[in-house]
Automatic annotation (TrEMBL):
One of its GO terms (cellular component) is cytoplasm. Monomer. It comes from the Eukaryota. Binds 1 Mg(2+) ion per monomer. One of its GO terms (biological process) is pyrimidine nucleotide biosynthetic process. CDD domains: ADK. This is UMP-CMP kinase. It is found in: Cytoplasm; Nucleus. HAMAP family: Adenylate_kinase_Adk (MF_00235), Adenylate_kinase_UMP_CMP_kin (MF_03172). Belongs to the adenylate kinase family. UMP-CMP kinase subfamily. A ribonucleoside 5'-phosphate binds at R85, K106, I107, V108, G133, F134, P135, R136, R176, R187. The keyword ATP-binding applies. CMP binds at N140.
Length: 249
């Protein structure tokens, strides 16, 4: 995928296996393209990508803060929820199943979500990704490691009390099928049961950054800023004000 050639062979085989499992038509793998056609490798793919996972309960403000991170550090935003909703909107073969699961506050099978993320990662020229709303479960996490063969550099956790999340979701007003009190209660239960172990996993690995997600959007972003500022890989892409030559934020 990213010229980590030692990792390519296992990635090809696990990728083909999971494609077969989902009945996807075999396509020339991206890894094969890289090996066969060196000129296609963009300079940004010469190194392993910088990956951030963004975790937090429903309505904790992940998407809102991702927008700010993208503006400031130029990461490419991949929202697992948005990718799944796109499948519903495009009425793909998994679309109806995904819709029913989301309506019921349930988690979509990991292979489906990971394949969607993998496709985006492979087709992007970027080398820095913000993967929002993923992994939601230990199964999601393990499937990503197995299929994509990459680990996150940073894991953000937006920590927000349940009642605040309920209030935000019910006021969101974007016409989402899961923004109602019945589904929200189910989502919160699933978050506690399935996402907490993932948060614990990354805490034990020393990769977790917990953000207090209550308060003003700008103030919350002030907690996020120093985390990304400390990574060399992101320094060159920080937004600089052309008039003052000062780094903004
Ligand atoms: N700090 C904040 N204070 C008040 N409202 C907020 C704050 N951050 C985000 N919101 C609002 O709360 C709602 C949920 O935010 P957002 O969509 O960013 O959450 P999310 O964690 O991505 O949710 P989901 O997991 O359900 O997609 C939105 O309407 C957003 O405008
Ligand atoms: N890794 C994921 C991410 C999302 N989903 C499903 C279930 C969620 O309730 C819904 C909405 O996601 P959000 O926009 O809140 O991130 O999408 C999933 O099954 N697996």
């Amino acid at each position: 995928m990213w010229r980590r050639v030692t990792l390519l062979s296992p990635m090809i085989s696990s990728s083909s296996r999971s494609q077969a499992a989902f009945g996807l038509t075999a396509r020339k793998s991206f890894a094969t393209e890289i090996i066969n056609s060196e000129e296609r490798v963009s300079p940004s793919k010469e190194k392993a990508p910088f990956i951030t996972f963004v975790l937090g309960g429903p309505g904790s403000g992940k998407g809102t803060q991702c927008e700010r991170i993208v503006e400031t550090f130029g990461l490419t935003h991949l929202s697992a929820g948005d990718l799944l909703r796109r499948e519903i909107a495009l009425n793909t073969k998994n679309g109806a199943t995904i819709l029913n699961l989301i309506k019921d506050g349930k988690i979509v099978p990991s292979e489906v979500t990971v394949k969607l993320l993998q496709k985006e990662l492979e087709s992007s020229d970027s080398s820095k990704f913000l993967i929002d709303g993923f992994p939601r479960t230990e199964e999601n996490r393990v499937a990503f490691e197995r299929i994509v063969r990459a680990d996150p550099d940073v894991v953000l956790f937006f920590d927000c009390p349940e009642e605040e999340m309920v209030k935000r979701v019910l006021n969101r007003n974007q016409g989402r099928v899961d923004d109602n009190i019945t589904t929200m209660r189910k989502r919160l239960k699933i978050f506690e049961a399935l996402n907490r172990p993932v948060i614990e996993y990354y805490k034990n690995k020393g990769k977790l950054y917990t953000i207090n997600a209550v308060g003003d959007v700008d103030d919350i972003f002030q907690q996020v800023l120093p985390i990304f500022s400390s990574f060399e890989q992101l320094k060159e892409s920080r937004n600089v004000n052309p008039k003052t030559s000062l780094v903004e934020n």
